[in-house]
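User: Predict the structure for this protein chain, please.
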Amino acid sequence: MIETTIGADITSITLDRPHRRNALTPDGLDALQAAVEECETSVICLHGAGPAFCAGADLDVVADLGREEAAAFAEQGQRVARAIAESPAVVIAAIDGAARGGGVELALACDLRVATPAATFAETGVRLGLFGAWGGTVRLPRVVGEGNAMDLALSGRTVDAETALRMGLVSRVTDDPTEVAREVAANDPAALERLQPLLRDRGTAAARERAEREAFADLVTRNADALRDR
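Assistant: Here is the predicted structure, written as structure tokens:
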């Protein structure tokens, strides 16, 4: 489910569930968190296997959750996103293909988001009576601004890589996102380690995340039948 390749300066972490568009289960989230926290290189490059980056949460799992379980699943996703956001490594999302829902949220937790021309982005949860609850309501407005965040989250529309670049959702569009990882890794590791925390927004989002997962759990409970029948 999670494949890790360790190089001299870059650890590549691949979400490896292509038959499910790399949708994440609780076990997959645990494995991703462990891979990030065990990294000892200065740069992490996060990939998706196959034609998608990540479809987010596995909706087959979500549909069967009770209210408390839904809140716990949202908290787990938030915990993984925090592990990415707080990693001492520079974390780069190499987005090729579709990023949806929680896949966008995991990318938002990364330091850099680099897309290929084939990348597309959408917060589609609203179309299922849900929303992204892995820290997305906290991070999306910070990254793209409130107006763009409202547009993406409330419409559920899909945007291509060039639109994402104009919004600030990604920082570059390139045929090979790993080139950016190599560019960053070529710099002094000590400088990266000192600079990166200064650039990150370290303000606490705990209260907003708690409200986010409670609202998500309410919606899962309300829309369980529709999720099963989707």
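Residues 114 and 172 are 5 Å apart (CA to CA).
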